[in-house]
Amino acid sequence: MLSALVLLFSLFSSAARADRTVRVGIYENEPKVFTSSPGVPSGLFVDILESIAREEKWILDYVPGTWQEGLGRLAWGDIDLMPDVAYTSEREHLFAFHGEPVVSDWFQLFARKGSGIHSIVDLRGKRVAVLAGSIQQDAFTQHATAFDLDVQLVPFSLFAEAFRAVQEGSADAVIANRFNGPLLMKEYGLEDTAVVFSPTRVYFAAPKSGDAALLEAIDRHLARMKRDPGSAYYDALRRWTSEELPGAIPFPTG
């Protein structure tokens, strides 16, 4: 009788784990996270999360939207995870982060060919397109203030819209991250200005009052995968980027 009860409890526990649904925000930021045709979740963060989900027996329920919509849903607890969120002290008050970064990132400036923009001071009096509500917008505002630059920031809901604005002349330059910038630069016929700033680390974020076990599991799997060159983590890096190892720019200490 006792052994039967133990078996029944074991089966119930396994079924409960298998039924765990995790709601994940997704937005358009290729190659880190995006929807490929016909609307299939894809990208570096998706590959890594799906590998973890298979191990943890999670069912991933993707919720598409803009970047700002995803952060809003995360803040209200309408989703359980949002990929590709850069850590800031301000965001730590709103969201929960795991400890092991997924990748390091930084921001680059792109402009039309022959624009003459080669440094941040060349942006004085220019219109700069940014992703609305992004850390790029906040970081560049700080840089512009530090250099006493009169710059007009033009926010867009999608990176593609921001790059198109530069292509069509309604903005003079656009800020993107090191992953999606080179792809969109080619698509919209822009050039890399060689202006690089604000190295950062990016994570999966959860609601502040969410289930801590989700982030603990992500941390555990990331640490294990990073120790194994043949893991799904490095497979994802090789598939979606040109690098074998995470990170490239050292972070300041002290």
Task: Kindly describe this structure.
The protein has 254 residues and is α/β, with parallel strands linked by helices. The protein contains nine helices and eleven strands. The chain has helices spanning 2-18, 44-56, 67-76, 89-92, 135-146, 159-168, 180-187, 212-226, 232-240; strands at residues 20-26, 34-36, 40-42, 58-64, 82-86, 95-97, 103-112, 127-131, 152-156, 173-177, 190-207. Strands 5, 6, 7, 8, 9, 10 and 11 form a seven-stranded mixed β-sheet that branches. Strands 1-4 form a two-stranded parallel ribbon. It starts with a helix and ends in a 14-residue tail after the last helix.
Brief account:
This protein has 254 residues and is of the alpha/beta class. 39% of the residues lie in helices and 28% in strands.
Q: How is this fold's topology laid out?
A:
Blueprint: H1 2-18, E1 20-26, E2 34-36, E3 40-42, H2 44-56, E4 58-64, H3 67-76, E5 82-86, H4 89-92, E6 95-97, E7 103-112, E8 127-131, H5 135-146, E9 152-156, H6 159-168, E10 173-177, H7 180-187, E11 190-207, H8 212-226, H9 232-240
Parallel strand pairs: 1-4, 8-9, 8-10
Antiparallel strand pairs: 2-3, 5-11, 6-11, 7-10, 7-11
Helix pairs in contact: 2-9
Features:
254 residues, seven-stranded mixed sheet, two-stranded parallel ribbon, 9 helices, 28% strand
Gyration radius (Cα, Å) is 20 Å
The biggest beta sheet reads: 7 strands, mixed
Q: Quote the beta fraction.
A: 25-35%
Assembly level: single chain
In the predicted model, the low-confidence regions spanning at least 5 consecutive residues are 4-16, 244-254
Order of H and E elements: HEEEHEHEHEEEHEHEHEHH
SS-derived structural category: alpha/beta
The total of beta strands comes to 11
Mean pLDDT: 89
**Global geometry:** globular
Gap between N and C termini = 62 Å
Share of helix, binned: 25-40%
The count of helical stretches stands at 9
